[in-house]
Amino acid sequence: MVSDEEYRSICNLLYKEARFADNAQYDDWESLLTDDMEYWVPINREDPNPATQLSLLYDNRSRVSTRIRMLKTGVRHAQVPPSPMTRLISNIEVESLNESEYKVCSAFMLGELQIQSTKDLHWWIGRTEHIFRRVDETLRIARKRVDLINSQEAVPSLAFLI
Amino acid sequence: MSVQNAIDYSTIVKDGIINSRVYKDEKIFEDEIRKIFHNGWSFVAHDSEIPNPGDYVRRSIGREPYLVIRNRDGEVNVISNKCTHRGTLLCQEERGNVRGAITCWYHGWVFGLNGDLKSVPYGAGSKDLDHKCLPKATVGVYKGFVFATLNPNPVDFMDYLGEGASLIDRAVESSPVGKIRLNAGWAKFLYKTNWKLQCENNIDGYHVNYVHASLARSIESRYNEAVLAGEDELKTTAVDWGNGHSELFLAAGFSSDLEWLGYSDKKPMKPFAKAYCDQLREAYGDNRASRIIHDGPPHALIFPNLFLAETNIVYYEVDQVGVTVQRHTPMLLEGVSDEMNTRIIRLCEAALGPSSFFLPDDGVITERQDLAFDGGPMEIDLRRGMGREDRNGMGVMESHVTDEVTNRAFWSRYKEVMVA
Ligand code: FES
Ligand SMILES: [Fe+2]
Q: pLDDT confidence of B233, banded at 50, 70, 90?
């Protein structure tokens, strides 16, 4: 069980992260992460073991930094300009894992305008599993796993922060 | 087809000059499906994907649905995935095992693993079904790479493959036991472009500094060294291996061992990487192992749709004239540690696919090409380096890595096939 106050601060972090990602506020987004954050978008829906199975994205913290640095160069063509996008987050369920960590499961729908080339409006839909950790009184993101409903089908460029 | 409507491929594809209609014209696309993908050989699968009898994967030949399936004798068949009764897809899952036979869920016709029609429900009412077995493609297998064609009398498979065979040899020799395994799953990247723009891009050595500028500015690697290098300092080459197969010989630019696995003077090898080098020396002897350790697997296109992408295997599925699906999977090695293969998977995620550090940028730039061609035909200029390319000691055309010799190799084969 988590208190109402804990639940509220968890939702605040979820929404803030979503806003930073939607608005391409890369530094702000990165400031929410722990130093050992892991960022993962699996492909395989039955057996997503990253040791043996390919993922769309499986970043350790240093790879996340590279990703952010690339986006900030202004020549990451796949995100020049950044996709206008809005994500809706819902179905939030929180589980307390230990004194400092929560598992936060949610569902999302993300509308993305592929403004860099085709100008198609694309819907990304799936579920997210976050691990939030309290570090020095501040709640941070220690892990983010995104399961797309169509991860095994052909998907367009996913160079933004999902 | 009437003569007036026939497309003259000898004029729209000339030495190094390509009319952009070839990326946009529906009729040309239909011709390609027939001449290149139905009548000629293309890559469909690797036999490690279907280890056991009854195992199958769904693949396309052109746009025709096929199953690559292993029969009871262990042979690989490529049979139609369309029921010969009224055409519903027999297998809907991407992969699986059909047990002993394939049963159609519309009316219950049953087919064997060689495509033979075994039984139909209420047989008394059906007649003359002898010819109703599933169409079978002609199959060629080289070191586990399965190619297929719908042509019952195609050119000899090994003649088609030509020097492509030695490119495959150099890929599989990365394994100390000479075997690869494609079982980490495929990612699929959707491009709103003609398929040929992807073939061109992957064997283009000229674009790195611009398309991949963001990566070069963000990491310490051979890529930012390449960006800084002057034209004369670049040692890597572009090679035309004949039959439309071509290569960017990146190894010529490597300055340390296992650079292709991400190691360098600045990033020393982990114990599993050293152990891998030892395994190669044991298996192949010092000379050959040193070459493998230094060079790594090739970066090469095997005409028309297989891209040996260093430690990855990539191929293209043609969907529509302006829609292409690129599939990729890490090339896992037999006879090495699990850690080594996990490293190969991580490299694959960094390099290929919709959220990687390379391909989204290639994708967006080529999509902008495809959009620009909507404005009407133009002449695409692929003549770079025509004045300085030369036959090397092995008699193959080789030139500076930024020269469009690889693209010309693709197009000259294309033209041969299309005018025939
Ligand atoms: S369509 Fe397959 S049995 Fe009728
Ligand atoms: Fe590229």
A: confident
Q: Is B68 helix (H, G, I), strand (E, B) or coil?
A: strand
Query: pTM for the complete prediction?
Result: 0.96
Q: Tell me how many domains chain B contains.
A: 2
State how far the Cα of B78 lies from the Cα of B84, in Å rounded to an integer: 15
Token pair, residue B322, equals 């302006």
Closest B-chain CA to A74:
B214
Among the bound ligands, the one closest to the CA of B206? 2
A111: CATH: 3.10.450.50
Residue A107: inside a domain? yes
B346 close to ligand 1 (CB < 6 Angstrom) = no
B386: alpha, beta or left, given left = phi > 0 and alpha = psi -120 to 50?
Answer: alpha
Please work out whether the CB of residue B86 comes within 6 Å of at least one atom of ligand 1. Answer: yes
**A101 domain residue, yes or no:** yes
Residue at B350 is within a domain? yes
Q: Angle, nearest 10°, between helix axes B359-372 and B195-202?
A: 130
The reply to whether residue A157 touches residue B354, judged by beta carbons under 8 angstroms, is yes
Average pLDDT over residues B50-74: 98
List, in sequence order, every residue forming a beta bridge with A155; answer none if it has no partner.
Answer: B189
**DSSP class of B207:** S
Whether ligand 1 lies within 6 angstroms of the CB of B107 is answered as yes
For residue B221, is pLDDT > 50? Answer: yes
Give the minimum alpha-carbon distance from A65 to chain B in angstroms, rounded to a whole number: 9
User: The complex's ipTM?
Assistant: 0.97
Provide the domain limits for residue B85: 42-154
Query: Which residues in B have their CB inside 8 Å of a CB on A?
Result: 94, 184-192, 211, 213-215, 217-219, 325, 329-330, 338, 341-342, 345-346, 348-350, 353-357, 360-361, 363-365, 367-368, 371
Would you say how long chain B is, in residues?
420
Quickly list DSSP for chain A.
---HHHHHHHHHHHHHHHHHHHTT-HHHHHTTEEEEEEEEEES-SS---TTTS-EEEEE-HHHHHHHHHHHHTS--GGGSSPPPEEEEEEEEEEEE-SSSEEEEEEEEEEEEE-TTTT--EEEEEEEEEEEEEEETTEEEEEEEEEEETTTTS-B----S--
Range of the domain at A74: 4-148
Residue B343: closest CA among B360, B330, B358: B330
Nearest ligand to the CA atom of B132: 1
> The CATH number of the domain where B54 resides is what?
2.102.10.10
Final residue in a domain of this structure, among B133, B154, B175: B154
Tell me, what's the pLDDT at B394? 85
In this structure, what are the phi and psi dihedrals at residue B52, rounded to the nearest 5 degrees? -115, 155
Ligand 1, residues B81, B90, B105, B106: which to mutate, most atoms within 8 A of Cβ?
B106
Chain A interface, mutation test: which of B223, B339, B342, B364, most A Cβ atoms within 10 Å? B364
Q: Is the CB of B105 under 6 A from ligand 1?
A: no
